[in-house]
Design brief:
The chain contains 2 helices and no strands. The chain has a domain at 22-64. The N and C termini lie far apart (75 Å). By secondary structure, the chain is mostly helical.
Length: 64
């Protein structure tokens, strides 16, 4: 059992050495892309929600 755990740890270390880790610049660029897209989507959803809520409120008041 202990031998199997040791072998798994060795295999894990060998696999992590083969991983092609991204550079710091690539990580920062990807992070900024995610932040910008998230802000854009948030603003878009907020504006759609605002327009729909104002539209439905207008229709609701008009029918009363």
């Amino acid at each position: 059992m202990i031998g199997a755990i040791k072998q798994q740890a060795k295999d894990l270390a060998a696999e992590l050495n083969r991983v092609d880790w991204p550079s710091k610049e690539k990580v920062l660029a990807s992070t900024w892309t995610v932040v910008v897209v998230s802000v854009f989507v948030g603003v878009y959803l907020w504006s759609v929600d605002w327009v729909l809520s104002k539209g439905f409120a207008f229709l609701w008041m008009k029918t009363r």
